[in-house]
Amino acid sequence: MTKSQADVVRTALEILDELGAEAVSMRAIAQRLDVRMNTVLWHVKSKARLEELMADAIVAGVSLDDLPRHWRERAAEIARRYRHALLAHRDGAAVVAGTYAAEPATLDTAEALVAALLDGGLSEREAAWTCWSLIYFVLGLAQEEQALPRGPQGLDVGERSALRRVLPFLREESFDERFEFGVAKLLA
User: Fold this and answer.
1) Residue 141 contacts residue 86 (beta carbons within 8 Å)
2) Quick one: how far is CA 172 from the chain centroid?
3) Kindly report the CA angle at 94 between 16 and 88, in degrees rounded to 5?
4) Longest C-alpha distance within the chain, in Å?
5) Helices H, strands E: what count in the chain?
6) What's phi and psi for 125, nearest 5 deg?
């Protein structure tokens, strides 16, 4: 059976979800598809290209349908959906953060976010930079959420007085609340 680029990317995402980012390799994809490595390379050319295609496939999970009309609510909802798309795949945020995927789904999501910001009256520069700030914030928070070991956290800040004052909040695993707080601050 002939394999396609979509088959290669789908298989890479299956390996990602089952075993994590470290397990995704051309060899693992070829074995799973029961083809030679040259077949995989024909479709994706390099590991970097594979990661770009995987990142775009992950971002394709961001639905741009039925968004709120008000610009701030629309931008926040796009950020929420972006976070959910990242968290839908094991190591999804790390895969997306490790690429510069100027691919259709990624560009469509950026277009919708920038359009919302422009609708809010931000200048072109502010809209572009706020878009980047939101994306970087969501990527960083989602990476932390996916990398955090489960169970009690023993964060030791030593004698750092400012950190000791806020330690109860640093130990919280309230990712949903931290997400909403950060997005609200960025869109204020």
Assistant:
1) no
2) 22
3) 55
4) 64
5) 10, 0
6) -65, -45
